[in-house]
């Protein structure tokens, strides 16, 4: 069937593009989608995920609602200023109504069930706060052997977007991020803000998507407020596809160039909270030829063929 994939998400405009990218890719077996608090509240992220799957004709994909708050401290703020009060620029009602309800087992149990019943290792694309994934690894330790790798959109090598040092997904639950990225021995790919901002698309790209078909038209209809918020960041009319970049790597391993680095997450209560500390000093990175990568070493995405990546996403989303 192709790449077995589960998406853990907090939709979110960029999450919407990421979910559609996986749902529409014929070489992907999308086993499930789990939702977490983040950009907006858990009821909103769950409803958005169900509606996006209905838009893509994929109501067969189960959706499990997960954590509605971080592991330890309350979430300091949501991203409604960027994504709108409903997470989709106030336009979620433009999407089809869900044709099914969220899975009764909830996100963590659904994740465990999907992993344990899969006949080969599964990739998890974690594109929201990492609370569900941390809970999965803590409560179902046997799940590790069923995970091929976890591709995570999060972190910033040279600063953040929620604070001067912290990126939103990591900042929303640093303790969970540390559990997944540092404390657990699970292969991870981190797709940071530094690269996803470079992969931003412009208004011409969005116009091509809008003209390509019903799904593309619906997705671009969700973007006006998001584009407006990124105008000051990017310096042009366009948007960052953050989460879709990570899902592209989950679908096509190697579309992003990665390097292994030791990593730490700041879980203190000071101004550094949520910072992703990637040790890029020469000589400390491990080469895969040296053997298994130890816990605390993460493959960080540092570069890609920007035009090739944009073309890949546009092609996958441009169904008639």
From TrEMBL:
Annotated keywords: Glycosidase, Hydrolase
Hydrolase recorded as keyword: yes
Protein name in the entry: Purine nucleosidase
GO molecular function, one term: purine nucleosidase activity
Keyword Transmembrane among UniProt keywords: no
A Gene Ontology cellular-component term: cytosol
GO biological process, one term: purine nucleoside catabolic process
Organism: Amycolatopsis taiwanensis
Domain Inosine/uridine-preferring nucleoside hydrolase positions: 5-307
